[in-house]
Amino acid sequence: MLNIGLLGLGTVGTGIVQILEERKKYLEKLIKQEISISKILVKDIDKKRDIEIDKEKLTTDIYEIIEDDNIDIIIEVLGGLDNPYYYIKEALNKGKDVITANKAVVAKHLEELTNLAKAKNKSFLYEASVGGGIPIIKPLKEQVNINQIQEIRGILNGTSNYILTKMISENLDFQEALETSQRLGYAEANPTDDIEGYDTRRKLRILSTIAFKDKIDEEDISCYGINSINFSDIKNIKSMSCTVKLLGTAIVNDNKYYASVEPVIVSQNSYFSKVDDANNLVSFIGDNVGELRFFGEGAGRFPTANAVLSDLIDITSNTYQRNCFLENSELDNINELYRGKYYMRINVKEDTKDKIEKYIVDNEIIEDMIEKKDSIAFTTKLISKKKLEKLIDIFMIDSKNYFVARLEV
Amino acid sequence: MLNIGLLGLGTVGTGIVQILEERKKYLEKLIKQEISISKILVKDIDKKRDIEIDKEKLTTDIYEIIEDDNIDIIIEVLGGLDNPYYYIKEALNKGKDVITANKAVVAKHLEELTNLAKAKNKSFLYEASVGGGIPIIKPLKEQVNINQIQEIRGILNGTSNYILTKMISENLDFQEALETSQRLGYAEANPTDDIEGYDTRRKLRILSTIAFKDKIDEEDISCYGINSINFSDIKNIKSMSCTVKLLGTAIVNDNKYYASVEPVIVSQNSYFSKVDDANNLVSFIGDNVGELRFFGEGAGRFPTANAVLSDLIDITSNTYQRNCFLENSELDNINELYRGKYYMRINVKEDTKDKIEKYIVDNEIIEDMIEKKDSIAFTTKLISKKKLEKLIDIFMIDSKNYFVARLEV
Lengths: 409, 409
What we know:
Two copies of one chain form a homodimer.
Chain A: E1 2-7, H1 11-22, H2 24-31, E2 35-41, E3 58-59, H3 62-66, E4 73-76, H4 82-93, E5 97-100, H5 103-119, E6 124-125, H6 137-143, E7 149-155, H7 158-170, H8 174-183, H9 192-195, H10 198-212, E8 222-223, H11 231-239, E9 242-253, E10 256-267, E11 279-286, E12 290-297, H12 301-316, E13 332-333, E14 339-340, E15 342-346, H13 350-362, E16 366-371, E17 376-380, E18 383-384, H14 385-394, E19 402-408
Parallel strand pairs in A: 1-2, 1-4, 2-3, 4-5, 5-6, 8-10, 10-13, 10-19
Antiparallel strand pairs in A: 7-9, 7-11, 9-10, 11-12, 14-18, 15-17, 15-19, 16-17
Helix pairs in contact in A: 1-12, 4-5, 5-10, 7-8
């Protein structure tokens, strides 16, 4: 009998219970033992739920689960940071295998929890933490055994991709698109992590650490979001026959790496432009395998639960990847040195526009002027982003009043 | 010490030797034993080769390898059908694990070799047989544990995709594009299997059998190639703002399935249209995970060798998928009942054109006439393909003189 302790019975937790119920016979035959979710940690036992669940199994006391020696595996789908981290650590210390979908915890504590699991000869798996239903963590861990990974790129946040898709396809302003996605459940009430790029950054931190075999921290990844994009940007981007995506990018070369999260303007011919709505896409390049791309639903009850259950099967079948990916490759971060071409739009008063135009000409920033009517918008030569940051400083432009995206066309 | 017997030292075999050499230290640390390719089966020991290799290891006698009890794993990368099949069977019978890249053998003998491996408690793995470097066999085997797969679609043959890409992008006729791809090594001297769809059919046979948990034979898959496509088709397809791809498709619904290999006309907005050159893409839909897409290089020395080595690591780490996928779901083939919209172009003499036009109007086949100058080309209503086959019969049109593609726009 395999006893599971489930922490959390929200969207994903409910999906896990549902799939396990539906496929019980098949899975029990596959792993050659009975499966039982013995206890579930919830905030409120009496809350009305989507599914029928034996109330005896619900508890508000984490220790009832962690200290239950009959429980073999903990599945953590709570969300949040400090509590889940503590629970996971305690569970590993008690000799339980742990699966989590919690990207915040994984991003913050990947190395510590991996090492702890290793020391306890248990598993710490987190397929659902990146790319929703896309199998990406495991394939990446497998590919790094045979490849030097040179590059990772991805649309890793469903919410921001949904917003950008709506803005482009339905000519909506940012606020309208955000409200639509909140109404449809694609964005949370507080969308900061999604639209400011922090969620993408966490996922890129996880992927790039596995890929490059060195600890790439969240702080090592420069981060720009989409919260200041407006309808005139969309108009300008369309006039360039392009579209815009929030991309995570990490490139390594000769022991140096560049890692960023930023809006990127891509051609309508780019495969990224075909990743619509809340879908995700991860691409990486290995020296032997070449480029691989993985596409799928970036979030949602069943895709995420599916990823959690693939970890569960790997643990029970003993087929998870054990390779210790951390080799301390000691890569140098060269974000400061990176030079790209950018699109910039600034809202300023009429008389400042001319001053800005003079500045970007004098400082060899501008490549093409796109518009100088409602706002000033231009593309740049190949420059370091610092040059744009300096411009923002000098003209004291508020973060709400400009939008920068890298050009990849 | 892990002793490998390598059957074949062509393009892929050489790649395997090269990667194993280059990553020897890492891999030996990973699998915690020394790795040695102890013997290699070749046709000609004295042939000049790309790589330096100890001639002592080369043999022309398969029994020197199969009957060597020190050899644990056989990697078969010979190509061909009967000999490799016999070697693989003998190797499994002798209690060796087997890895193959040979799609012909896998397509013909998947069930028998899988069952034999199971009976011998050994592994029979074939990641490289579909999709070149793309990890697709293993992820699919994993996903079927948690999902009912409803649909598989893919660009599975690099050669035909390369030819179609060249015809579209460089306005080449079929023969020119074929010759270019032969010159560049993308097509073999005898390209029949690639351009007539048989290679795609083998791969779809393998994927759909795993996905649907029932034996889908090559003969169960209707098969149309691209060998009769010509420049006027390309012109017509472009005028529809579309492109054309050779797709394998298998759809299951309510214990009935449709499986085909055929040219499909897709919109330029379709993600299939972004799969250029010799690349492959596999998409499948599971009831929980939703749609997943996998993209990568469909062939080539290092991508294919990479896939073979991922199987090798799985065997040595004991992490391969053991799920016995065959459940004899007893699906019914309904290819005959399938109705689609098609594009058809026919080259006939001037006076026959009017007769064909009358026929396709009278029989409610035609939707739109595309051209009636150099040839007669039209799109159809939703019909069964039989109606087109009947037309071909009645007007006794030679297979060289017409081209049919399904419309997916």
